Amino acid sequence: MKRNMYISAAVSVVLIAGGPVAAAAAATADTARTAPAAAARADVDATGAAEAALKKYPGVVESLDKDGSVWHVDVITKDGKGHAELEVASNGTVTQVSKDTNDDPGEYKALLAAKVNAQQAMKAAVAAHPGQAWAVEWDNDNGATYWHVEVKDSNGKTWNAHVDPTTGKVTASGSDSDSDNND
After folding, report:
1. pLDDT at 167
2. From the DSSP assignment, how many helices (H) and strands (E) are in the chain?
3. Half-sphere exposure of 170 (CA within 13 A, CB side)
4. Residue 13 confidence (pLDDT)
5. Phi then psi for 91, rounded to 5 degrees?
6. What sign does the dihedral 114-53-76-170 (CA atoms) show?
7. Residues 6 or more apart from 154 whose CB is under 8 A from it?
8. How far is Cα 111 from Cα 165, in angstroms, rounded to an integer?
9. DSSP run (H or E) holding 87
10. In this predicted model, what pLDDT tens digit does every residue of 162-171 receive, in sequence order?
11. Which of 173, 94, 116 is nearest to 151 (CA)?
12. What average pLDDT does the chain have?
């Protein structure tokens, strides 16, 4: 309490003596003091959500998608015997929704052997089509495995890509012209 009174008194003296220049300096100091707090509230992007989920539950991301302000992330353990469904809030807070430790490791053999992980697949898709990665999912269509990545551009349109899990090569799989698609 005394500290606040001293600071207020000092600011008053400076403002009276220095006028507008001192007021600008005081405002700049106040902005600098609150900047880290504002940065902490910044929304987590797809890569940040993946990193936060892996910090909470180490393994390999199998899928990730955004629903409103929450990222849903499925992580498979590196031995393939377990997986967890996690939710990552916009501030990076991770909540474990469910966890299973009785999985068949053979089910995730291709995913665990992939040279390109989910984060690298998202980065490759965004490099091929600028925007923000919105979802990534490990897919297996008739024995062909790939990463399916959705990228939203600045107009809100979704571009779908397939990313080769061995080479990282990106091929377009179409776009969604519905700009209201928030899934």
Report:
1. 96
2. 5, 8
3. 20
4. 38
5. -90, 0
6. negative
7. 130, 131
8. 8
9. strand 83-88
10. 999 999 999 9
11. 173
12. 80
For residue 54, name the pLDDT band (cuts at 50, 70, 90).
very high
Structure tokens at 14: 């400076």
User: Count of CB atoms within 10 A of residue 170's CB?
Assistant: 20
Max CA pair span of the chain: 78
Residue 17 confidence (pLDDT) above 80: no
Q: Which of 22-26, 71-75, 90-94 shows the lowest mean pLDDT across its residues?
A: 22-26
Look up residue 66 and give its amino acid. K
- Environment class of 153 (CB within 10 Å of its CB; exposed 0-12, middle 13-18, buried 19+): middle
**Token representation of residue 128:** 């091929």
Per the model's pLDDT, the better-predicted residue between 172 and 54 turns out to be 54
Tell me if 78 sits within 8 A of 72, measured CB to CB. Answer: no
* Region 16-33 average pLDDT: 44
Tokens of 33: 């003091």
Regarding beta strands 170-176 and 144-152, do their DSSP bridges make them parallel or antiparallel, or are they unpaired?
unpaired
Spatial CA neighbour of 146 closest among 127, 128, 126, 172: 172
- Band of residue 42 on the pLDDT scale cut at 50, 70, 90: low
Q: Is 84 exposed, middle or buried (0-12, 13-18, 19+ CB in 10 A)?
A: buried
Beta-carbon contacts of 66 under 8 Å, excluding residues fewer than 6 positions away, are 46, 49, 72, 134, 135
